[in-house]
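Hi team,

Filling in the usual template for the complex we talked about on Friday. All components are listed, including any nucleic acid strands or ligand strings, so the model treats them as one assembly.

SUBMITTER: L.P.
PURPOSE: interface mapping
COMPONENTS: two
RESIDUES: 225
SEQUENCES:
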Amino acid sequence: NAGVTQTPKFQVLKTGQSMTLQCAQDMNHNSMYWYRQDPGMGLRLIYYSASEGTTDKGEVPNGYNVSRLNKREFSLRLESAAPSQTSVYFCASSPSAGVNNEQFFGPGTRLTVL
Amino acid sequence: GQSLEQPSEVTAVEGAIVQINCTYQTSGFYGLSWYQQHDGGAPTFLSYNALDGLEETGRFSSFLSRSDSYGYLLLQELQMKDSASYFCAVRDRTGFQKLVFGTGTRLLVSP
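RESULT (copied from the run log):
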């Protein structure tokens, strides 16, 4: 099992460019999440998907959109990148009825917006 | 809303014991979790406390006091590989598995 995979690992964008971050999990989890982590900070939730076909905003959704393509895949799109979106982006997944708050994280995408 | 406070940095030597504290404010409590993150890596789950008391997993233990809105992670027999950031997290009040993370404690273990 690969767990949670993310592509790309690194990306440099110019202000105003768009891109999509891809995430996939092979653990048959119902719930998936996108976080951003800025230097010296904790993880802040951007969007989440409780189950296939549903998505909801998290703490910092402005400037982002998401698509839950199927049970395995959850993508994050930046329509018009801004320098403030320079960050490390983590995708995570969990069983919807998990009893211990465990989320499984991907390796992250390091995004720089110039 | 919810907020969590942790010390920003803790230092210790190999073989020692260190405690990382976490205080939280939340309108609905569904458990306190701890995650470890090495530099450049992804967060990984360490432990979870839903009820008061101590949970032990090898060299790591986690404690919760719901009446004090307080918990801690205890790391024993420290090793160099324990140098990492440690985050506490509480489950969102909606009851769904939406976590709110603290800003993290950077643990530096020296020889």
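MY TAKE: Chain B has a mean pLDDT of 92. The interface with chain A takes residues 4, 8, 30-31, 33, 41-45, 48, 50, 87, 89, 91, 96-104 of chain B (CB under 8 Å).

Thanks, L.
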